[in-house]
């Protein structure tokens, strides 16, 4: 299993969190702690760059959904970008695509995050 590495960049109107490695129960706590550290406010808009995530299990998905629910509750939003085939399949199977916007590129996700008002709820 590849180790999880995380980085973030604050841009006007959005924070981009780049995730690299497999997301599962072994690194769930690391992922949650990083999100808490990277956020500037509960109501901000976040983009998760998933282009370097070859695998995600329900633990990683749970963290993303919890983060999404938290952001929506505070007037923010979460957008996912550049998901690889296995995470995309997980999003399809679980119905996440009906609740969290997934974009082909990070640039598209940033543009949408800046322009969108939260409209999805759980």
Strand order in the largest sheet: 1-2-3-4-5
Mean pLDDT: 92
Main beta-sheet strand count, sense and barrel state: 5 strands, mixed
Question: What percent of residues adopt helix (DSSP H or I)?
Answer: 25-40%
Strand content: 15-25%
User: Can you write the helix and strand succession as a string?
Assistant: EEHEHEHEH
Report the span from N to C terminus. Answer: 32 Å
Sheet/helix structural class: alpha/beta
Q: List low-pLDDT spans.
A: 118-122
The number of helical runs is 4
Q: What is the number of beta strands?
A: 5
Using only CA atoms, what is the Rg?
13 Å
Shape: globular
Report what the structure shows.
With 122 residues, the chain is an alpha/beta fold. The protein is 39% helix and 24% strand. It has helices at 28-38, 58-73, 85-94, 106-115; strands at 5-11, 14-20, 45-52, 77-81, 102-103. It has a 5-stranded mixed beta sheet with strand order 1-2-3-4-5, sandwiched between helices. Helix 1 (28-38) packs parallel to helix 2. 30% of the residues are buried.
């Amino acid at each position: 299993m590849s180790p999880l590495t995380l980085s973030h960049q604050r841009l006007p109107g959005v924070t981009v969190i780049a995730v690299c490695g497999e997301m599962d129960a072994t690194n769930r706590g690391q992922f949650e702690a990083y999100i808490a550290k990277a956020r500037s406010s509960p109501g901000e808009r976040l983009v998760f760059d998933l282009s370097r995530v070859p695998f995600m299990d329900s633990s990683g998905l749970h963290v993303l959904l919890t983060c999404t629910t938290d952001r929506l509750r505070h007037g923010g939003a979460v957008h996912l970008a550049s998901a690889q085939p296995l995470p995309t399949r997980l999003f399809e199977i679980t119905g996440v695509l009906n609740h969290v916007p997934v974009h082909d590129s990070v640039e598209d996700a940033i543009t949408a995050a800046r322009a969108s008002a939260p409209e999805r709820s759980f």
